[in-house]
């Protein structure tokens, strides 16, 4: 947990997260990430062997989580209303820049 | 804690101590809204028209919003139509719903059909969702008049409201100071009477901290108590919707309206919804109150400490038993929170890709370029920082060391609360280690800003509920909030304790 983030790490994470950083942003991100990761390294003080990860808290609640709903067909949002909010559509589908070169 | 980070935190908290003794500016927009029950009675009796009430709120908003930047969007047409419906019902003598004619504001991360919902982000500029958030729909069904959408930190990420793409909200108590965040607009709206009540979201303290900075009541409901359907997600295992109001009773009234199971949110609980207002009327006498020493350690502003100690004394005077409790993992909560929350955020915010809604960059001819340019141009610096941290913590080779480790510590934190609640009915702490700070004071240092959440992220991780209630002020007149925490679905207990503190009328420390 003490690994230092490098410029290459920042570039790799940028690719994973689909974020394109300007060169001046990369330097700042590198500095901030290293400072934050240094700080969270404090968790290493704790021995968590044998502790199960807690992903969500409803397992702890007395009242418990809701039962799954019945699997029934029900109306959903109107396609036209949804499409209206998209940057580019042909009414039926979302349009994006060409993916495959012909 | 790593050395440089600790030193940075210490330096900041010392600055906080100095600031607290500074005299604040005289410019103030604080005005207390009337109680919901009183307003409803006026409307039912025909003494006040819901339409006139809404119009008077819009007039006040027009005057004050240019200075405070509380509202991003006004939903006048919808509000006035609802007010007219209520007035027609009142004129006919029909029974009125519980929030008949009550003007409320909605944080911009909660969607309202047809109204721009930006989540404080440029990437959602102009987005008008085709559906209502469940909490919003329930409020309207209960007669509330929805005035508009309230400013907040971008995607609810921030502790000062300075991360909004639409400019910071100013604190009505002192406009040179932040209102807290991320529900800064919601807290400021109630404090300045630009709404009778407001709704916010709390992922790591985003209702409680701004409520305490602005001197209002804020509620963190138990995880699962309120449906998250229509909440623009930040961190799904932590996000909650809750009310901010001028009194504990009003906040309790509002929680009963929005709580309950919703088929559209599988994590919403079927636990019965109580009449929290009636429950809050019960005296706190006999309740066992825990005070954790970990929340009164180094870094706590001495004036905040003094105010909270007065609040604890008032609980003793009200017949509560006060005893120490131990929550030894508290100091690990902020690093745990910032790993869990950012990991979840990196997944949730993947949906903003310029395809289905929001901003699309015109500057790329390829699909992957369109994704990354849209996100780079659409997201602000803090959101990018959190997506980065979360993506890193989830990436191959680091998952076990960061994300999984944080989830394990999360269990330790949650179990520690369960053990404490075997001994006590409620736990009281300061809501924030310092009062409202000045605009720009912490913007250059993300870690210092994260440490502002030190007392609130614990309950977020554990899923328990809490209420922040005004508990005096500093010498400079800045509000102090006491956080009252209770076990899962223990809202009624938290409200009873908060009512006792509120009723004690903790004196200001003098100006």
Structural class of chain A: mainly alpha
> Helix-strand pattern of chain A, N to C?
HHH
CATH architecture of the domain at 1-47 in chain A: Orthogonal Bundle
Task: Note the main sheet of chain B.
Answer: 11 strands, mixed
Number of helices of chain A: 3
**Name of the CATH first level of the domain at 1-47 in chain A:** Mainly Alpha
H and E order of chain B = HHHEHEHEHEHEEHHEHEHHHHEHHEEH
From the spread of the alpha carbons, the general shape of chain A counts as: flat
Mean pLDDT of chain B: 93
Q: What portion of residues of chain B is helical? A: 40-55%
- Strand arrangement in the largest pleated sheet of chain B: 1-3-2-4-6-5-10-11-9-7-8
Helix share of residues of chain A? 25-40%
Largest interface, with counts of residues having CB < 8 Å to the other chain, equals: A-B, 65 and 83 residues
Q: What is the beta-strand fraction of chain B?
A: 5-15%
